[in-house]
Write a structure and sequence with these properties.
With about 325 residues, the protein is an alpha+beta fold. The protein contains 7 helices and 8 strands; from the N terminus they run ααααββααβαβββββ. β1 and β2 form a beta hairpin.
């Protein structure tokens, strides 16, 4: 099937967005479709830099005007694609996607502004198109640019009717933690998320022909993707912050594959077993956390493990994508 949609997302990660149906579409078979963010234009980058250097109200208004312009250009591009389609099913799907784009315009622009005005945003290392990054030496295997965030996990909780982490209130994370890594989830929860996301990805990316499976990385895959921690790396460890920070923080410290945050902030579950007990396994975790030492955060550390059926306030996860 022809690849139609632009599936770029901001900072290489899937910031999954779910919205209500437009008033003229109810019980639609395409209701799980999510809207991709428009590609960041060079002009918008210039205005972001201008805002970073001088965060005034005028520069904010200048930036949001340009973000709306980027969004509207992508909206018009999708409409022009629609005119070229002949397959009835593709036309129906893209029609619904365009309606969703129109309906969610303001809400998505608000999310983009949260990202673009984040003082930790580093445009020199900014990535738009690479949600999953190639792991050298392992065919067809890619690692997520970031760990799974609270906002991404919320979609899983809602759509899969799954139990929320204990630090959430009434099924929702604290308002200021949307872009922070989800923690307080067991290894088993992370596996369940990966299995759910594999099916969800296939449903929402209806113009992709690849057969992708999402799962946790093995310790070896994680290490290959991370590479050696750079000399003088500045990461969220050693309690320099009061806890976890945004998944976009410290984005100037990239792994060998180019991923953000593979050292510090939160330990990351892997699928490698360190020790087996009757009721649970001790699973290898990698990368250190906000309260770890710099030394223990290094790629070469193979001593840390966590119980597969337990929950921790400093352990999250990122997925790998395997494409056949």
């Amino acid at each position: 099937m022809k690849r139609i949609l632009s599936l770029c997302s901001i900072l290489g990660i899937f910031l999954l967005f779910s919205c209500s149906n437009p008033s003229n579409t109810t019980n639609n078979e395409y209701e799980n479709i999510d809207i991709s963010y428009p590609k960041l234009s060079d002009k918008t980058k210039e205005i972001i830099l201008k805002y970073q250097n001088n965060p005034t109200k005028d520069n904010y208004n200048l930036l949001i005007t340009e973000v709306y312009n980027d969004y509207d250009l992508e909206f018009e591009r999708q409409k022009s694609i629609l005119l070229e389609l002949t397959d009835k099913e593709e036309i129906a799907k893209l029609n619904y996607y365009i309606e969703e784009m129109q309906f969610a315009r303001d809400e998505i622009v608000d999310e983009l502004m949260d990202i673009y005005t984040d003082p930790n945003l580093n445009l020199e290392t900014f990535r738009v198109e690479e949600d999953y990054l190639k792991i050298d030496g392992i065919m067809g295997t890619y690692i997520s640019n970031t760990t799974v965030s609270n906002s991404e996990y919320k979609l899983f909780v809602e759509k899969h009717d799954y139990e929320a982490p204990l630090y959430w209130n009434n099924g929702s994370y604290p308002f200021d933690l949307g872009n922070c890594p989800v923690v307080g989830i067991s290894y088993e929860d992370a596996v369940e998320y990966c299995e759910w996301y594999t099916e969800y990805y296939r449903e929402k990316n209806f113009f992709l022909t690849e057969d992708a499976v999402f799962r946790l990385p093995t310790e070896q895959e994680w290490e290959k993707a991370a590479g050696e921690m750079p000399e003088g790396a500045i990461i969220n460890c050693g309690n320099i912050n009061s806890g976890v920070t945004s998944i976009y923080s410290y984005s100037d410290c990239r792994s060998k594959a180019g991923a953000i945050g593979m050292w510090g902030n939160v330990w990351e579950w892997t699928s490698s077993i360190r020790k087996t007990y009757e009721d649970y396994n001790m699973m290898a975790v990698k990368g250190g956390a906000f309260n770890s030492s710099l030394e223990s955060s290094k790629t070469t550390n193979r001593t840390e493990s966590k119980a597969s059926n337990s929950y921790y306030n400093n352990v999250g996860f990122r997925m790998i994508k395997v494409v056949s």
